[in-house]
Fold DnaA N-terminal domain-containing protein.
Amino acid sequence: MKPPARLTRRQEAAWEAFWSAYPRREGKAAAREVFAALTADAGPAGGVDPDFLARAARRYADQCGERRLDVMYIAHAKTWLRQRRFEDEVFADPAEPKAPPLAEPDDVWWPMFVAAGMDRSTYDRWIRPCRIEIGPDGGAVEIRAPSPFHAEWLSTRLDHVIRRALGRMPDIEVMP
């Protein structure tokens, strides 16, 4: 039997955070091997930041929970790591802007979406063109999208982030 991969203290702490957050806890030893290989020599020159993997696993777990996925549809941790699914836009950390983004007077929604894990380019591409309206009771929300394609994309690809950002508001409808 192969001994477990050696990890630094930082890697070990991140591994524990990753494993406790990951929504399907099967194949721990195999996943740990891939985690160790990915995070070896993490830094500017190479390797994946182990803390980033832990954060991405939490976001993946949140997404699985929000979509109420059956465990059979949740990737094994080894597969998720090996296929580098953590690099998918949904799980990625918000990109570091070259210049700090300036909040515009009408940009009241940006802080809620960034807190939900959305990066600025996704916000500008998919949320900013929409009109978000709060109902008279302060609870209902309508998102008016500029096209049917846009509405479909929001409801199928970004619904979990929208719900996380506007979660205090019960019903979210995406309307063309």
